[in-house]
């Protein structure tokens, strides 16, 4: 199947490692040009080398509107267009109701949510020209809760709401907007979380047993396949959707 992604320029926040890294790699395999916005220089360099230079890393931790504006300007200067955005960068930072503070709560939302808006806002004039596609990486925690992580979950819920809101606002430009909700994906972020338990291996096995399909984690590549499909013309009539790529973890019968 030709996804028609060759030479398409796609911004990928957090695009050097984990889920974002797999999305960048998949885009490279399709001949697209990912722009990796991620401070992880070593992993980013490896991906740019894999692309034979047909990729760009912007090694920053996105936070301010000015940074997002600069990302868009740098991309346009180098490639002249933007065909898609994958909002993916984020971290489950454990700012809860009982053990957080109002300041940490606000900071967590800012870290996890605001750059999703900034990047799309500044890329919009170019997305209108290309009739581009947007993918927001949210989380099942937005619909199930997790406990102890109010800021992250509030941001993830807002990303789902913005997916619908942007899908509507951008209808006149034929820009499609969709969200993916991963549940349990073994990435560097997941590994450091699992290692925070006294017996990480036992905890991992306990979680695996609860994943209906195959009793295993989703791979970053399985999330990437959905993201790449949604970016492609093959998803040409899909917009405003929340897609669960989770082996049935969120919805299937608990007794399975
Ligand atoms: P990861 O392993 O930590 O990889 C994320 C990458 O993004 C890292 O290279 C990280 O750099 C970078 N990054 C973080 N914040 C950034 C920012 N503000 N600007 C630019 N780069 C930034 O995380 P992941 O597990 O792949 O998670 C990716 C997305 O999936 C997140 O939105 C997360 O909420 C969502 N998700 C993941 C899971 C899961 O099971 N893994 C489940 C549900 C949702 P540093 O390492 O230097 O921070």
TrEMBL record:
- Give the source species: Algoriphagus boseongensis
User: Which Gene Ontology terms cover its molecular function?
Assistant: oxidoreductase activity
Q: Which domain of life is it from?
A: Bacteria
CDD domains recorded for this chain? SDR_c
> What keywords were assigned to this record?
Oxidoreductase
Query: What InterPro entries does this protein's entry cite?
Result: NAD(P)-bd_dom_sf, SDR_fam
Q: Which family does it belong to?
A: Belongs to the short-chain dehydrogenases/reductases (SDR) family.
User: Which Pfam family is one of those matched by this entry?
Assistant: adh_short_C2
**What PANTHER family has UniProt attached to this entry?**
OXIDOREDUCTASE, SHORT-CHAIN DEHYDROGENASE/REDUCTASE FAMILY (AFU_ORTHOLOGUE AFUA_5G02870), SHORT-CHAIN DEHYDROGENASE_REDUCTASE FAMILY PROTEIN
Protein name, UniProt field: 3-oxoacyl-[acyl-carrier protein] reductase/L-fucose dehydrogenase
The keyword Oxidoreductase appears for this protein? yes
């Amino acid at each position: 199947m030709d996804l028609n992604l060759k030479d398409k320029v796609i911004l990928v926040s957090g695009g050097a490692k984990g889920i974002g890294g797999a999305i960048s790699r998949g885009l490279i395999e399709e001949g697209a040009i990912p722009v990796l916005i991620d401070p992880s220089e070593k992993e980013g360099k490896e991906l740019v080398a894999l692309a034979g230079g047909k990729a760009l890393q912007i090694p920053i931790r996105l936070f301010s509107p000015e940074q997002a504006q600069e990302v868009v300007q740098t991309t346009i200067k180098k490639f002249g267009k933007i065909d898609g955005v994958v909002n993916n960068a984020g971290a489950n930072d454990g700012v809860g109701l009982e053990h957080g503070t109002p300041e940490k709560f606000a900071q967590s939302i800012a870290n996890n949510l605001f750059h999703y808006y900034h990047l799309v806002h500044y890329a919009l004039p170019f997305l209108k020209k290309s009739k581009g596609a947007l993918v927001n990486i949210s989380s099942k925690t937005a619909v199930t809760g997790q406990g102890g992580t109010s800021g992250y979950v509030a941001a993830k819920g807002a990303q789902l709401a913005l997916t619908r809101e942007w899908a509507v606002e951008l209808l006149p430009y034929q820009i499609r907007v969709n969200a993916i909700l991963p549940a349990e994906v073994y990435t560097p972020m997941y590994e450091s979380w699992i290692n925070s338990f006294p017996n990480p291996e036992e905890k991992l096995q306990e979680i695996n047993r609860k994943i209906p399909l195959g009793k295993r984690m989703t791979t970053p590549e399985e999330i990437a396949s959905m993201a790449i499909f949604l970016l492609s013309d093959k998803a040409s009539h899909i917009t405003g959707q929340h897609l669960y790529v989770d082996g049935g973890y969120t919805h299937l019968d608990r007794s399975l």
